[in-house]
Amino acid sequence: MKLLLRRDQKSGMLGVGKITFTLDVRAELTEEEKSHIKKYKLGETMLYERDKIVGGSGLLGLASRFALKMMNLSISVNDLTNGKQVECKDIVEMLAVEEQIKEACETFKAVLTAAAHFGGEEVIEF
Predict the structure, then answer these.
(1) 60, 89, 94, 102: which sits with the fewest CB atoms below 10 Å from its CB?
(2) What was the pLDDT predicted at 15?
């Protein structure tokens, strides 16, 4: 598995306003890895989730929960295989998201490696 990352930025309307940083992520998988994802139904497996929880009640609470719901981020195996763009408010947030995605991919690679050894024997030397 290869993780492909592309960092970019875009300006606000008419070139003024806040800059939004974007991170495009996509995994390049081997045919064997794709077959394991299909066989074990791993496509919906969540690799990364960023939730911002808000309180509040009434109409204002509902509006704030809706606005923050739009800012939540989740990345599944399917998202990685198809590619996904993540928008971040600043470079620090983008780097943090990138690091979380890298860690999740390392864990997922371990899952794929384990999936490749079902029905067989693995020898580990120390």
Answers:
(1) 60
(2) 65
Does the pLDDT of residue 72 top 60, yes or no?
yes
Q: How far apart are CA 55 and CA 34, in angstroms?
A: 41
Helices (H), 1-126: 31-39, 58-71, 77-82, 91-115
Q: Which long-range contacts (CB under 8 A, 24 or more apart) does 48-51 make?
A: 48/73, 48/74, 48/75, 48/97, 48/100, 48/101, 48/104, 49/73, 49/74, 49/75, 50/74, 50/97, 50/100
Q: What is the pTM of this model?
A: 0.70
pLDDT at 73 over 80: no
| The pair of three-digit structure tokens given for residue 24, joined into one six-digit string | 């495009």
The contacts of residue 21 (CB under 8 Å, 6+ apart) are: 7, 8, 9, 87, 88, 89, 90, 91, 93, 94
> What would the pLDDT profile of 28-61 be if each residue is shown by its tens digit?
999 999 999 999 999 999 887 876 444 455 555 5
